[in-house]
Amino acid sequence: MQLICDLEIHTKYARACSKESDLPHHHLWARKKGIDVVGTGDFTHPVWFRECGEQLEDAGEGLYRLKQVHRVPQHTAASHDPLFMYTSEVACIFSRGGKVRRVHVLLFAPSREAAERLNALLGKVGKLASDGRPILGLDMIRMAEFARDADPDFLVVPAHVWTPWFGMYGSKSGFDSFEEAWGDMASWIPAVETGLSSDPPMNWRLPELDGKTIISFSDAHSPPNLGREATVVEVAARSFHNIAHALRSEAGENRIIETYEFFPEEGMYHYDGHRVCEVRWSPQETRRKKGICPKCGRPVTVGVMSRVEELADREEEYKPRNRPGFRSLVPLPEIIGDGLERGKHSKGVTAIYETLVGAHASEFDILVKKPLDELKAFLDPTVVTGIERMREGEVKKTPGYDGVYGSVEVFTERDRKRVQQGSLF
Q: Tens of pLDDT along 70-97?
């Protein structure tokens, strides 16, 4: 069976997160999106860990089900029942090699009991109650050792590996190689998580990642952002061990099929620049101007694309054989809003979206799975054309930089008028 997994999310106990980032709303939005397995997020936070114990029940095989009493009573077209996996993310801040390193690390627990054992170890290092994503003065290698000591089946993965401030390869505080980052633990770390500002082709350019899987998750700070990136796995049955094996492997009975990606240009660190000075540069422009902002005279924040160019040993067009595929997606509310010239958070777009996922199909079914002819039966033709253009990659991209999200437009003004007249093609 195929499972859509989103295992990097945050909760109401993490900084800058929605108050509705809780289990009932995550369960509801996983149903709307079509996600099969979603992370609990933030299991290191003691209050959240207790809430998980109160609201989840054991579904067997290292996965957990939201108790019926805690479910939001809202109908969705998707009939599946999403399950939860105990997951968390920690910020490791430490000194190594004469530099201060700041690296975010994902933790996937094989059971609640394993998560509890790791919490006991980490509680001796830092204040876990300070934030849902705690800041720990702990080397990432030691973090991996703690996880392995808590349970050898723990899965440890560097998060959003290219982002400047907190990525393993980040320009501000990261490392230049996987081996440098993980030392003797490198062979135990099976994967890298792309983050919103990179996609698989950017990671394929590093030969050292040929033996690592490439996975993607949403890093959602609010329930509607669940699934903005996800990993699709093929497994024999729903279980932690099968999913974990799939995340470690691209072959065999349990394996990764594909990932769902942001267009990386939409991520907030794809290009270089200065947010305050409104300076946005491609890697080529940064090199030409020696990385110095012309407005303030300070170095610009070097983003993901430049960092990939710096470390890559392969050309941009490189395509490996026999690696899982990927799809670059635009969230359905953005396509609806773009096509109908309304804001993606407007009441009109929200009403249309809720009708679609409530009566017709999940968001991923609409974006990825259903043939266009089926979509025409219940979708505005402009929106159907927008989905077709997204599937073909025919979008206008404005890269994000220095903490500013980029944008992806499905239609130009001219396109929109032509499709409304029925003459786009």
A: 999 999 998 899 999 999 999 999 999 9
Residue 392: which H helix or E strand, with range? helix 381-392
For residue 48, give the nearest of 89, 1, 104 by alpha carbon.
89
Quote the tokens at residue 340: 């109908």
Phi, then psi, of 5 in degrees rounded to 5 = -120, 135
208, 178 Cβ separation under 8 angstroms? yes
Question: Is 361:370 a contact under the CB 8 Å cutoff?
Answer: yes
Output b/e per residue, 62-86; b: 16+ Cβ within 10 A.
bbbbbeeeeebeeebbbeeebbbbb
C-alpha distances in Å from residue 170, one per residue of 163, 181, 284, 306, 374: 5, 11, 18, 10, 43
CATH superfamily of the domain spanning 2-265: Metal-dependent hydrolases (3.20.20.140)
Q: What are phi and psi of 88, to 5 degrees?
A: -155, 170
User: DSSP letters of 275-291?
Assistant: TTTTEEE-HHHHHHTTT
Query: What's the predicted TM-score (pTM) here?
Result: 0.96
Residues 421 and 407: their CA atoms lie apart, in Å, by: 26
Distance of alpha carbon 211 from alpha carbon 191, whole angstroms: 9
